[in-house]
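Changelog note: in this version the structure field was regenerated for every chain. One regenerated record is shown below for reference.
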Amino acid sequence: MSKRARDMAFRHFNKGVSLIEKGLHEDALESLKQAEEQAMGAESPQMLVAVLQTYADLLFSHDRKEEALERYIAASDILEKNPKYMSPEQRASMFSNMATVLEESGRKEEARDKYEISAQIYRELIEKEPSNTSHVSNAVSTLNNMGALLAEMSENGDAFRIFEEAFKLHDRTAESKKEDAEYQRKRITILENLLNIPIESASGLEEGRYGQLMEIYLEETRANDITSLNVSTTLQNFAHVLENEGKYDAAFMKLQEALENISTRFDEDPENPVNRKNTIKILRDMSRLLENEDRSETLLEKYGSILEMSRKLLASMPSNTSYQLNVAFSLDIIGNLLKDAGRIEEAMQRIEESVDITLQVLESEPDDSSSLQAGVSIIEDMLALAELAEDTDTKLNLYRKLEDKIKTVSQESLELGLISAGICHEAGKILAEKGADAEALENFNKAISTYETVRHATGDDSKMNDVLEDIAKTQLSLGLNDDALLTYIKLVKTNPSGRGYIDRIDEILLKKEKKADSTGNVDILKKEYENILEIRTELLGLVPDENRKNAAGIRELQGKIADIMVAMGQTREALQVYEQLQETDTNNTYLPGIVKLLEKLKNSADLQPGTEGLEIFEFLLSKYNKLMEMDGKNDTILANRAAVIENIAYILSEKGEAEESGYMYNYALEAYTGLAGLQPESVFPVERIAALHAKIAELAANQNNTDEARTRYETSLGIYRSLMNADLSNTEHQLDYAGVLDGMGSFFLSIGMHADAKKSYENALKTFAGIMELEPENLTYRSNVTITLQNLGYTLELMGRKEDASWMYENARKIKDGIE
């Protein structure tokens, strides 16, 4: 059976080969298919290998790559057992073809292996027969294909090595093939492959060797009248090599040569997209190289040549926005260089032209974000130049001129609007300095209108406060006190802790109060007091009341409104009167008045030193205990009573009476818990409960009661977590939560639980950092982050992680420096 199959296989195989030679490929495919079927049962691996290779080659030539690959693999498997079934020449050819199929199938690693097998066989054949030009030619083709694959795989060093090997082999026959055009084209192709590799990432290449190869290539292209486009590309690649070696001047010179070369082609055919594309690539490389140049005069000269070519590109296609922006960027860079050289007038001319071009682009393509960003950057450069104006009149004229330019862009843009708003703000400040308050206010109002739009669109109000401040000051200068008051209230709402706004509001309100006092009309007086009280009450809910100034104003107004005749009396005497009245009133009519007076007394106690304050708070506690007998479910009484107990606990703690303080803190905790039961929707008692648990934990830690401390800390954290989950935007809860984590970290640190301390500090840091992202310039937030970073660094240092600790200390230092 096997002998007959072998004979049949041989017959079909010979027929297939003959048909191939005659160009009858379809018939040949059928014969080779039959040969394959017979060879499978012929028990002749050598015959099967020959059939598989020939069949695969023919299938491959007919683009039936998967079928070809299947047979190449089968033949390869047989040859692994006995390579002698096929001559070295045949094996080299087959593996080279097989690699090509694998590469086209996307199996690049396998293709690389097969190329290497083929190349190695050719190397051995050439070593045996150095003068065999067929072996050399085939080896060159295989190596060239292999190099191309390696380059595609970004293995640039290996690719260069293989290409150079191919070139050296090809160079062996250079003398005898001078007149062979195909030979010369192949030689140039190999050189192009060599020189087009991103050599900056290839290892082991020397500038000298690259230069030799480039010179050979240039000689070949000149001798064979090859297009100069490839010459430009080669010069550009050589520039990359020089740049990689830090030879920036030499690299720039090569790019200039490349630009001159391509410029000639560009002048001949400016419409050719290939010329445009390569010109742009060279210009980009030149611009990148100049980033390493710090000589101003040199930069001006070199950017001048870039600008000249960029103008050529633009002239060839005036509507191309990329070309327009290239010119604009070059003008902007040159303008800034002139500015640095003190040539302000020339700088302004260049940058003003750059602005005009950029705004023209934005008018034609308003939705192009990259053009918009470019325009914003260039306009900001012009603004920076305006800042260098010698006098305010010149600066003001420049601002107005730039604002008029921006108005030419008909399409609305948030970014350009912000720039216009900034210009209006700066112009307004100049006008205010010159005493033109009405015109200044008009500019400020235009600016704030834009910033209001931004706030509604994005939530960003970062630029509003400065303008609002200037508006308020100008309104005061113009005598518009009521308008100024409304503006300051806006400022408080956007930045509660900012720059003395409350003081300004207080001054205005005091003037209004003083004016009301002089009316002599009780109704008008009461109405004005109520208006002022409404404002002060709103402010009390918006900002921390430093020195209790606003609260004092509210208390005074409440007293005046309740009873103008008695509100200005001494607090204890007034309280005594209200208590006496209350004793005879079954409807608790005077209870609110009593509570208000007690609140006054409590606020005054806050300002007293320890012992004196303690005496007042103890007096208040006795009064609130009595009030609870009258109205035990009064929220205000319960809240104030709890606060009084908490204040007593705090004073005792400050005096070092830890046991008594702990008792009172627990007493306060009980009071707030009762209040929370009556006010299930109120957050306040829950906040105090969380804070008290943290305070009790601190006391327990100081008394070495570690279990109690840990339990209290965890309870406090749990409550704060619930509060945060209920109101994700409440930064106070997040700050308190992070503060408890910080305290818990200190506690763990004090008892040697370094890992737990580290975890607490890390969680605190994470929370503080999240808050700081909302207001990165907030000094309180930055200070919290600084302290926690230092604590975490100290913990890591104790754990032996000095490098991590140093990182924490360094970041803490940077933030601290930013605060200072």
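Spot check on this record: Residues 564-570 have pLDDT under 50 and may be disordered. The radius of gyration is 43 Å.
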